[in-house]
Amino acid sequence: MARLFQTLIFAASATRVFASCAYGTHLMPRAEGEVKVSTFGYFGANGPLNWAALALPENSACATGTNQSPINMVEEVFQVIPAADVTFEVNDMPDGAEFENLGTTVEVITQGGRLVLDNKEFALQQFHFHLPSEHLDNGTSQAMEMHMVHQAEDGQIAVVGVYINIATEAAPAAAKRSLSSRSRLFGRQENVTAPPASSGAPSTLLETLFSVVDQISVPGSKVTTPPLVMSEVVDAVKAGSFQAYSGSLTTPPCSENVNWRVSTAKLNVSPASFIKARDVIGFNSRFPQNAPGSPNILMVSALGSAAAAVSVAGTAPAA
Ligand SMILES: [Zn+2]
């Protein structure tokens, strides 16, 4: 059965894959001055059922790896770590940041930040968005998920995942004022009133970012964002816990040994900003994978499909 599966993989096209969750890391070095558009996708022959075949052997883990992401986040698959005990810092970006459309996601190129896990330092490279969420929060999909991608000197990757829900409250007047006057007032962040992320009010960072997402609706395009205050996200994450597990990139090449830290703190996005982001991102969520340590769900599926084919052939009426 495994040979049948390999044959199917080799028979498919071998298109190179250019960008992913790992864009900007050693796995997918960023090209100077241009935005490289991904060649993998989320449906049909370019979709996650067929990612391995798009580039072999680089993407083989997508079909054979046994610690693949995303997963359903239920208690038995992760360790809970209080985020207050973890060094997690993200630099503000007072001059704005480069915001790119990679074709498969929209991504912000960060300007410094770090995560320290077991005395190992990971430097923040970028953050990007999935819609809907890739991880499931105890079986429940969230509106979006932000991935903050970090890399250590030895190339290992650590990702902080933050769920994003639809805001149930309007932005407080103070937050609205701070948005409109952010450019002038930047440098006096201590006076900016950002709503607590758990309040149901929209995140100031997300509202600021998605105010310009329609300017990068074309894959390969980029824009400079307004000034970005990252302390709101850091404070929200630090107030919660991390659900920690060892998984993979959720995009080709699906490399494993990725340190996942999914935050229990959630951000909110206003309905209007969610629609703007959705109209640019479309759909970019890999289906949930088998529990860590279990056989890859595509291998399980291939065996099941082959068994079904044998069964159908055996029962077919003679012509
Ligand atoms: Zn991602």
UniProtKB/TrEMBL annotation:
EC class of the enzyme, as a word? lyase
Annotated catalysed reactions? hydrogencarbonate + H(+) = CO2 + H2O
- The Alpha-carbonic anhydrase domain is annotated at 38-312
Q: Where is the signal peptide?
A: 1-19
Entry's Gene Ontology molecular function annotations: carbonate dehydratase activity; zinc ion binding
- Keywords assigned: Lyase, Metal-binding, Signal, Zinc
EC number(s) on file = 4.2.1.1
Q: Which InterPro entries match?
A: Alpha_CA_prokaryot-like, CA_dom, CA_dom_sf, Carbonic_anhydrase_a-class
Name the PANTHER family for this protein: CARBONIC ANHYDRASE
Write out the similarity annotation: Belongs to the alpha-carbonic anhydrase family.
This chain's protein is named: carbonic anhydrase
- Upper taxonomic classification of the species? Eukaryota, Fungi, Dikarya, Ascomycota, Pezizomycotina
